[in-house]
Amino acid sequence: MKKKGLIVAGIMLLAAMAVFANAEAESDSTGDYKLVLKLSHVFSPAEQLTKSMDAVAQSILEKTDGAIEIQTFPQAQLPAYKEGVEQVVRGADFISVEDPSFIGDYVPDFKALYAPMLYRSFDEYVALTETEVVEQMMARAEEQGIKILALDYIYGFRNLITKKVIETPADLAGMKIRTPGSKSYIDTLTAMGAIATPLPWGETLSAVQQGVVDGLEGSEFTNLGTKVYEGPAKNVATTRHILGTCGVYISTEVWASIPEEYRVIIQEEFTNGATDMVNLLKSQHGDVVKELESYGVKFNEVNDAAFREALAPLYAEQPGMTPGVFQSIFSELDSMR
Ligand code: X3X
Q1: Number of neighbouring beta carbons within 10 Å of residue 4
Q2: Model-level pTM?
Q3: CA of 291 to the centre of ligand 1 (A)
Q4: Which of 110, 152, 175, 180 has a CB 3.0–4.6 Å from the CB of 103, allowing a cystine?
């Protein structure tokens, strides 16, 4: 009996030592753990997305006691757009901040999420990103090596910004309109009646100035933040054809290598950063419109029904999309209205 007691005591002692050793290892592993991540996006210093990314990075550095250092690179100083997402998929210590259409190359359902004229408000889109429909999309992105930390760094509804007044798709005939390089934008502006002309943002204002393109499309926050209004394209047709938003993407491998206690902080800060940015831009939009008008920008309404009719073919399921994905999105949105 005595021998049995000793064996039990020994087993309990070994178990306790194992737990202690493991805890020690974890604290050691987070104790001297350090990771530097490079964060890339295309926005300019004056735009809120840039300010929000800088604020989130600073907060993460402080809350992890310097363990997680996110170096932010605006204005496409590092690989951006499609190339930025490729860095994530390759497993680089890299965070790509781009709109979800660029994830569409890996998970086609994101092209449905970023389809034109879907949303009536920022809030609708944010609510949709919290549904199971989008959670399933995010899970498929992880299968492709992309961990999505946020999808709602919303920078405003994108409108047409042109030299001449646009009211109908017919007005866009023959007009070269600059877009970002993803297929979602090219298909959208083509369906609206324009000649979609993909260019990186860095070449856009000079292309408008030199007449290489007849206009562009973007939000009022982009218009003000990048001084589009200083150029010849002073007419804004309020198509609200796409809700401009950015997601935050990191490699699933890199994400899994970060200690859990830091992952919790990183996720929380990017989530809160998006909420803060959405609330700020909602409160600022009216004043931004007034400021643009003070610079000579003229806003006009459009034939909404004509543009919706022109865009209808884009709700057909594309190769690789989950059958019924558009119906799922429509029914979620209908349930909110
Ligand atoms: O992936 C991010 C978006 O596609 C960026 O849109 P773009 O290239 O029209 O840039 C918006 C500007 O606000 C950047 O300064």
Answers
A1: 8
A2: 0.91
A3: 21
A4: 110
